[in-house]
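User: Here's a protein and a ligand (nicotinamide-adenine-dinucleotide). What would the complex look like?
Assistant: Let me lay out the input and then the predicted complex.
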Amino acid sequence: MSTPYKLYIDGKWINSESGETFPSLNPANPKDIVGRFQLGNEDDVNKAVDAAERAFKKWSETPAPKRGQILFRAAQMFRERKEELARLLTREMGKVITEARGDVQEAIDMTEYMAGEGRRMFGYTTPSELRDKFCMTIRMPIGICGLITPWNFPIAIPSWKIMPALICGDTVVFKPSSDTPLCAIKLVEILEKAGLPKGVLNLVTGPGEAAGMTIVRHEKVRAISFTGHRDTGKTILKEAGLKKVGLELGGKNGIIVMDDADLNLALDGLIWGGYGTTGQRCTAASRVIVHEKIKEKFEKMLVNRIKKLKLGNGLNPKTDVGPLINKAAQDKSKSYVDIGLEEGGKLLIGGKVPRMNGFFFEPTLFTDCSIDMRISQEEIFGPIVSLIPVKDFDEAIEAMNSVEYGLSSSIYTKDMRKAFLAIQRIEAGITYINSSTIGAEVHLPFGGVKHTGIGTREAGILGIDEFSEVKTVYVDYSGKLQKAQIDIK
Ligand code: NAD
């Protein structure tokens, strides 16, 4: 058996205190064990926090452009190792190789973007109400940030958190998902090689409760940035106490297809949004809201295309749809097919676990779904799409907004008025016009409304907010006491 991978604490690769390990499996072939990883617990987290605390002063006082230079070097190393990382990602997480390359590219983009932020990190200046007084805002690091991430973008999502935290001068304790620890280790290795000082970034692999929750509750941790399931997010919010908390949670995203839409374009968008990454994206299009006039035609087009989707190992370039992440996810998809049938949804295609080695599930389409069915309301995180027929634009918007989540959304129409009304009326953090629900670019803010989060945004300039504090500075050079609101004549 190969040597277990280690934790990264205080610049050293070490075993966990318990000495226990867990495996990470290839979901396309669970007999292929990707590696064994340290089962980090409270003791390991405490060590990691202490290391992050020791490293904070020097790192936070390092000029941000210098911090940026390390990130630029890391981006270059990511670029050189892009193919190797993408293949590893496919092996550990199951994503088809083209999408895995996209995941790594997103990490490169984010690393470069945040490296550049080291030379911006803008505050602003504004006039004072008093003479000979100068006012401005500056960005300050927060301190130790606890970053907890899911498995579905195992290189990109950690980069969305680690890079802004580092550029802002924070130190980090990072706990990745136990389904994708090797991707996390590779990411940390690159940052180490790029020259990150010891203790600035610490990695603890291990379970949500023993490792993740210890970070969340730790008094020295000043901020938590979490991406994952809504229910985990709710628990974290309750337990974090007086910390800055960022939550990026689930979605039940929809695509509206109006009767004037370019149906071939909408078809491409739905196949990509609904079945790409086997439906395991927070922005996946799990609902398609279709005008009744074109419903039958669009159903036929969808079924014809879904039939052609090829399931398989993501490393095979002919594969369209990879496996689900694990057995629990496969069971969950199966149970939602049963729920959909019980609720009266009409199964047009799919619905079964195919006779294949890994955790595969057939791309599935239900039609004649109403907005209140569980398959139209709940996040399944599998290749299952509910088609909801509607009679007009208003009903389409109502269907779109009928869910608790509010992450991504899309409308296909040639009518600009309807497109702009949709932008205005849809309750979501992201709206696409004539494009699928997925495909975030790193220089634009990313996040959702309602149960998808608590208002924080990742990426772009707003992504800096989560990892920095704003300090307001008043400089009075009048040489006398001037009182705001009082000495205003
Ligand atoms: P999850 O909530 O099960 O796990 C996410 C992380 O939290 C993992 O590292 C896990 O170990 C940890 N964790 C679990 N329980 C914990 C606890 N009690 N305390 C602290 N940490 C704990 O989610 P997942 O299955 O890994 O990811 C899928 C979910 O993530 C979906 O709901 C998806 O929509 C969401 N997601 C959201 C976004 C977004 O940006 N909005 C992006 C990707 C995924």
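Summary: The mean pLDDT is 97.
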